[in-house]
Design a protein that fits this description.
single chain, Rossmann fold, Dihydrodipicolinate Reductase, domain 2, 6-stranded parallel sheet, 13 helices, 15 strands, binds nicotinamide-adenine-dinucleotide
Length: 332
């Protein structure tokens, strides 16, 4: 039985607490949060202890730590948790700063306990199915990847100000998805961004609408489109064109009823936002982490994967600011 401490009882911490507690081979034993009442509430729900982050890291009876605190705490907590011999699942992104993430990579390089990064979309059954079909060569040689990722509505402006910007906070999932499906990192990225949804986002120095084009050394191309607003719901579609066909993952919709009349054909909207759309993926992600830690096999999403995606976010941010294509090799 894997005994788990959870750091952060916010939006995503609550999701992870459920996955940890529902798994037959893991048990939530302690929760911390910077706001004590948040930890207390979650601990009461799952009948476990609430204590400080430092106490959880130092506890010899805890085997694994799930980091669900804000992004600017991730590198420090990964270093401290692995120094204490804990296996770690850390939420994306690795850090707001690429330099800090690379420093963390060096610090933990020779430690024996694993770190997995929470790119949950890799565990979505449809997206994992697309990857498996592509790897089996079912559409021949992959040539063009398209990822659409639109949120239903923008986050609060207070969140935008500390998020690190759309490329690090939101498109990072899509950069990782491109790396996952293409099996490689691109050679260069060119990106454009605009704040046409909410001028306040622009005033905060961020964008709410963006497109990035990724070029691979073998000629393949990926295009990622992000928007912070899609009035019809959470729009998540992926399409991979190959020499012998096309693989598509479409939206998961609220229900499967379709109404056809002389006025047209109408179906339900996409499920509302990430907690609903990706709940099976969060559960499968936790199952994969437990399986890797208990069997001693490599975790399926490494810290290196997390740093690769962050370097791409950095490249896209620079490209959107300069209007120039940015080579990944030049991003440091
Ligand atoms: N994989 C995903 O789909 C996904 C979705 C949402 C958020 N995230 C990531 O998860 C992280 C948390 O996001 P959120 O939306 O849950 O934020 P949140 O603000 O809702 O929750 C974070 C919680 O951490 C607490 N906290 C701050 N410092 C702490 C510390 N040192 N130790 C313990 N707790 C601490 C805060 O008080 C807060 O309750 C972010 O890095 C975010 O990018 C990932």
């Amino acid at each position: 039985m894997l005994r788990v401490g959870l750091l952060g009882a916010g939006r995503i911490g609550i999701v992870h607490a459920k996955a940890i507690s529902s798994h037959p081979d893991s048990r939530l034993v302690a929760v911390s949060d910077a706001v004590a009442e948040s930890a207390e509430k979650l601990a009461l729900q799952y009948q476990c202890r609430h204590c400080s982050t430092d106490e959880i890291i130092a506890d010899p009876d805890i085997d694994a730590i799930l980091i669900a605190s804000p992004t600017n705490t991730h590198s420090d907590l990964m270093e401290a948790a692995t120094a204490a011999g804990k296996a770690v699942l850390c939420e994306k992104p690795v850090d707001l700063s690429l330099q800090r993430a690379r420093a963390c990579q060096k610090v933990v390089a020779n430690r024996s306990t694993p770190i997995m990064i929470g790119f949950n979309r890799r565990f979505d059954p449809s997206l994992a199915g697309l990857k498996a079909a592509a790897d089996r060569g079912e559409i021949g040689k992959a040539e063009l990847l398209s990822i659409h990722s639109f949120d239903p509505s923008p986050p609060p402006i207070e969140y935008v100000r500390v998020s690190g910007g759309l490329f690090r906070d939101m498109m990072i999932h899509d950069f990782d998805m491109a790396n996952f499906i293409m099996g490689d990192v691109p050679e260069s990225i060119i990106a454009v961004g605009s704040s046409i949804v909410d001028p306040e986002i622009g005033a905060a120095g961020d964008v709410d609408t963006a497109v990035a084009t990724l070029s691979y050394s073998d000629g393949r191309i990926a295009v990622i489109k992000n928007s912070r607003r899609a009035v019809y719901g959470y729009d998540q579609r992926v399409e991979l064109l190959g020499s012998e066909g096309l693989l598509q993952v479409n939206n998961v919709i609220e229900n499967s009823m379709v109404k056809s009349t002389s006025a047209g054909v109408v179906s339900a909207r996409p499920t509302y936002f990430f907690l609903e759309r990706y709940m099976p993926a969060y559960e499968a992600e936790w199952t994969a982490f437990v399986a890797a830690v208990t069997s001693g096999s490599p975790v399926p999403v490494s810290l290196d994967d997390g740093v690769d995606a962050l370097a791409m976010a950095e490249a896209a941010t620079r490209s959107a600011q300069s209007g120039l294509s940015v080579k990944l090799a030049d991003v440091n």
